[in-house]
Amino acid sequence: MKRAAVCSNRLGAMQAALEKRSDRSRKPLWKWILRLGTILITATWCHNAFAAAGDLYVSEIDTGSVLKIDAAGNRTTFASGLSGPFGLAFDRDGNLFVADKDTNLVLKYTPNGAKSIFASNLHLPTSLAFDATGNLFVADFLANAILKITPEGTKTTFATGLHNPSGLAFDRSGNLYESEYAAGTLLKFAPDGSRSLFASGFVRPEEIVFDVAGNLFVTDYDTGTITKFTPGGTRTTFASDLSGAWGLALDPAGNLLEVDNVSGNIFAFAPDGTKTPRVSGLGTPTFIALERPTAVPQNISTRMDVLTGEQVMIAGFIIVGSAPKRVMVRGIGPSLSNFGITGVLSDPTLQLQNQGGATVASNDDWKESQESEIANTGIPPTNDVESAMVVTLAPGAYTVIEQGKANGTGVGLVEVYDLDPAANSSLGNISTRGFVKTGSQVMIGGFIVGGGNNTAKVLVRGIGPSLAAFGISNPLSDPTIELHNASGALVSSNNDWKDSDADAIQATGIPPSNDLESAVVAVLPGGNYTAVVSGKNGGVGVGLVEVYNLR
After folding, report:
1. C-beta of residue 258 within 8 angstroms of C-beta of residue 225
2. What is the CATH number of the domain that holds 274?
3. 177 plus 221 within the same structural domain
4. Exposure of 372 by Cβ count < 10 A (0-12 exposed, 13-18 middle, 19+ buried)?
5. Which terminal residue of the chain has fewer beta carbons within 10 Å of its beta carbon, N or C?
6. Which residues constitute the domain of residue 259?
7. Backbone φ/ψ region at 525: left (φ over 0), alpha (ψ -120 to 50), beta
8. Are residues 370 and 387 in the same domain?
9. What's the predicted TM-score (pTM) here?
10. Distance from CA of residue 474 to its chain's centroid?
11. How many domains is the chain partitioned into structurally?
């Protein structure tokens, strides 16, 4: 009950603040804001994560140290007394892991700098990478192997028979890519360990990294180049004329950072390849990482008018990781009238489908089945005719459909709750599609940034015209989007996504495909947020709201 009470208190505070707004025409959009569920937005699998303030960590061989460089360019020594620091990687809790090649150790540093030995008896460890479930993978250069180490420190061998592994990176599907320093190749390992040749023709490939769009970048030390592979496999030379190209990372703006080992510089490359200096005057830098934030977007739900046919409410989410996830899905209608909403969905029903379209679970009235299990969550629906289900789901993509019993229509709310946040899996990639009207029947999505004092960088999109390509009739012709904080203040807004901040939106790799669609990129501190998608000049139609975590 404690979690439900916290959500209720937050909702009350948001409503009180919003009631004070002088723009009375906007009150209907916010007075009945929505109940907030508990769901993670989008996980990022790249092992080079992003810092809230853009703090940059660089390993230096000559000084045996790891430097920390803040957004203003100020340098401090984060760790010293090392014997050949190489690969760097942050875990989900903000701990920094360092491969110390000459002592054959992997060291762990807490955010306050406390040092401990995480793994020993290695054979010149180079690159480090975390998978989506928190396991650390180590490229063991002289052992010609890749090691897997659980969060508890259990070490196993993931792959052997390699040729001096030097770089590691995971794609969004959980495949591990490895650069073969001695063979001049890239290998791809499926989650089950099966391997295949991904690319060849390199001289001395070093580090590899994926951007948010799924492009793979590889440094080649001897040729001084960075090679880019698109998700479709197209290969191009992204950058050349470098001096000992080594470590790679991505900054919060989507720029690719490259460690120039010989010149002692770090360069930033914009998505179009434009090169600018970022840091100079280093000794012999090798690897680079940006600190992972502890704040993540979470708690999302969507409220809108539920009609029939293709205009029912459809919400999609993905479970990522290796472990099953226990969730509760709720379909709310009648109890929304307690918040002053008229025309509510009188008898909502729910259907949960897997990515193949098969029905996993369904429910009409929540007490008809699983009553005790749903009640024990502490957050059952407050009206007996509302819908809910508790299910344990394997990793994969799922769709929730909320509609009215016997083709009933009205304002409804769909929510997904994570009942097992400690599991080695998370919920992500949330989007909701439905019919967008006007007034209190626009599309309203709410989420909370929580989990620490850092910030989260998000992309929020309002989609309409491009839905026609998927056979949707009457799409929202010109969607607009507003992002508000907990006090109701406008954080950002957009009509056509190219009107403002187009470069930042383009750099995410997932801009809207239609110029009339809307999007905003924002770096948000912890708190409650709402995204309102409506039609320009009172337009109506089928729309889609999406929230992506860019960290």
Report:
1. no
2. 2.120.10.30
3. yes
4. exposed
5. N
6. 56-290
7. beta
8. yes
9. 0.56
10. 31
11. 2
